[in-house]
Design a protein that fits this description.
By secondary structure, the protein is an alpha+beta fold. The protein has helices spanning 2-13, 22-42, 53-71, 76-99, 101-108, 122-128, 132-143, and strands at residues 112-116, 119-120, 151-156, 162-166, 172-176, 185-189. It starts with a helix and ends with a strand.
């Protein structure tokens, strides 16, 4: 009974077939799609957001490996196993990076300070391959600032974003003096 069911499933998805039919490829695509969603859920969806190159690489490799099961260029179940192994390794490396800053830096990189107290760090700009125009665009978009002097800190983060912390401005103080016994009014404008 089980062998008959297994044989029917094998025929449906074209296990051992030299050429796959459109329906076999479609069914494989459906199975791989559902399996990929399951793998992503097991991998905590980390690599599908905007994260480090470490995360992006898994997405690319996983897609490449799983596509081979759809087209029949590799064994169906072997390909699913390889995909599961990749997600498992990614999860294991992520756990190791959580507990070891050194390992995390090794596989994910580290942040670089691009601007500190209004001064551009040109050596870090060069290492990060970021032009002045790229920096100014990021400062405008992410920090709502138009001048580097308005920035306390801007960092090129591990995920490729540029984070911006604005300088705190000193409030303008306006003092108004009124005559005839009325007291002085002091107003702070932020």
């Amino acid at each position: 009974m089980i062998e008959e069911i297994w044989g029917a499933v094998g025929d449906l998805i074209g296990l051992g077939a030299e050429e796959l039919t459109v329906w076999q490829m479609a069914l494989r695509a459906l199975i791989i799609y559902v399996s990929a969603i399951s793998l992503v859920r097991l991998g905590e969806k980390r690599f599908m957001g905007k994260n480090t190159a470490f995360d992006v690489i898994l997405g690319i490799i996983l897609g490449s490996v799983l596509s081979r099961a759809i087209t029949g260029n590799a064994g169906f179940f072997q390909t699913l196993g390889a995909g599961a192994l990749l997600v498992g390794l990614h999860w294991l490396f992520s756990v190791a990076a959580f507990y070891s800053d050194r390992f995390g830096t090794m596989i994910k990189g580290s942040e670089r300070r691009l601007v500190e107290d209004g001064e551009i760090h040109w050596d870090n700009m060069r290492k990060s391959h970021i032009s002045k125009d790229d920096l100014l665009g990021a400062l405008h978009i992410n920090g709502k600032v138009t001048d580097v002097s308005e920035v306390r800190l801007a960092c090129f983060e591990r995920n490729g974003d540029i984070s911006v912390i604005r300088r705190e401005r000193e409030p303008k103080v306006v003092e108004v003096s009124v005559r005839d016994g009325v007291q002085t009014v002091r107003i702070e404008l932020a």
